[in-house]
Amino acid sequence: MTFTDLSIATNATIKPIQEIATKAGIPLESLELYGKYKAKIDVSSLPPVTKLGQVVLVTALSPTPAGEGKSTVTVGLADAFNQLGESVIVALREPSLGPVMGMKGGATGGGYAQVLPMEDINLHFTGDIHAITTANNALSALIDNHLHQGNTLNLDPRRIAWKRVLDMNDRALRQITIGLGGPLQGVPRQDGFDITVASEIMAVLCLSTSLEDLKERLAQMVIAYTYDKEPVTVRQLGVEGALTLLLKDAFKPNLVQTIEGTPAIIHGGPFANIAHGCNSLMATNTARRLADIVVTEAGFGADLGAEKFMHIKSRKGGFHPDAVVIVATIRALKMHGGIEKSLLSEPNADAVKRGITNLEKHVDTIRQFGIEPIVALNQFITDTEVEIAEVMDWSQANEVQIALTQVWEHGGKGGLELAKLIKQELGRPTNFTMLYDETDSVEEKLRIIVQQVYGGAGVQLTDSAKRKLVELKKYGWDALPICMAKTQYSLSDQPSLHGRPEGFTITIRDIIPKLGAGFLVCLTGDIMTMPGLPKQPAALKMDVGAGGEAIGLF
Questions:
Q1: Is 408 a known active-site residue?
Q2: According to the model, what pLDDT value does residue 554 have?
Q3: Which listed residue (9, 39, 198, 272) is catalytic?
Q4: Please, which pLDDT band fits residue 3 given cuts at 50, 70 and 90?
Q5: Is 394 an active-site residue?
Q6: 235 is known as an active-site residue
Q7: Is the pTM of this model over 0.85?
Q8: Which of 170, 219, 238, 304 could connect to 300 by a Cys-Cys bridge, CB 3.0–4.6 Å?
Q9: Residue 190 to residue 205: CA distance in whole angstroms
Q10: Please, what are the domains in the chain?
């Protein structure tokens, strides 16, 4: 029998969510049930606490199409802590339908290290992403209605900064024209769609700490510029209250469970290559109130999600990771060593040795933040002893702690070695430091990220980006953290440059102020805020059985 993630999840024993809530210390009156196995948490009714749990951040080397299993290791690690008798909650992002129906897949882990109900979470879940989509597009409709009804704010239709969104990969919507058909159909103008997880509302929801904070952040979002080139915010349009109303339920974190019954909070889903790549502050802080150890992840490699966790989420949340795990695989190391995906099953220790340079840079990056990382070598059946020995020899020579993990096959049991190493790290003090201050210039912040995190030579701005920088300084927006929109496949802005490239320059082609989220998005290379579907999307294999069961969902 072939075991798939879906078949394993379908055959798992799932407990009533009230039982999971009791285990997590959540009063039943704080639960809002979404069926038998999902619930939202009314955080305002949770009992007060005096001590907050420690945070374990899971990141990875630069990802490859082979897949590294970062979410799988995250879930398996939480289950391992659970097996050790620790008070633990895993906090994850919500999957976007775009990757689910496209190529990347879901975000619920895999094998025997999954969160359940897997099909629900990967599809519509509790409707949070739909609510964010609705709020985003309601704002678009209100902007266009304002243009149509007299435009008292003097908005320039050529300078509407707010785009519509859709939670799907749909390249045909990147650039569109709206308002055609005559005066009754609105004001004609160019527009476009981003994917929902790139919406500023997604980032705002994930970085807000209360409904009041959410409303204020929504009010601060820049939506357009006037004919005099002055910025216009949601507050000036007067609709922050309506947007908050649409988001009030989505703002509450979601409670589910792992296959082994470990409590899991899944909430928020910004991508890490085009957004800040971390689950919500509400989810992480709620987990910290309830458990001694919180295992969470940041999207893609340490150059993207982990860097943004440190500089954006930690800065906004007032906490930092107490331990960091970097997930690596022999397969990924071989790809970074120059081997094609079709040849990964063939032993090649030399390619592993060449590819270790990529892992080495991510270890260096985490160390710069004052944290000693632990490498989780996520094992696959095709890994050979010689290839594994190559990584172990490197780790010993470079004084890097490493643990073999087999959580896909064995669940929490396969992560016990890793959990024990992390437990030791949690008992030691960290010397956490951020690499830049908010008051540093934009140029200096970019230089630090490129040189110290990516290992590049420097940064260059296009003429368009230079004009944006002048505008940022004019309005005092330059004292914000940076959110780099960069390919996940390389430390550089060129996806084909694997391993540890050197001497490269990162080109910034645009800088987009996200005042509600509280950061500046710097677009590099050919990165798209609306992805496209692959030639053979995963949706082609999906179906529904006679009993309504999902088919082909990973």
A1: yes
A2: 80
A3: 272
A4: confident
A5: no
A6: no
A7: yes
A8: 304
A9: 27
A10: 5-127+250-426 (3.40.50.300), 128-246 (3.30.1510.10), 442-524 (3.10.410.10)
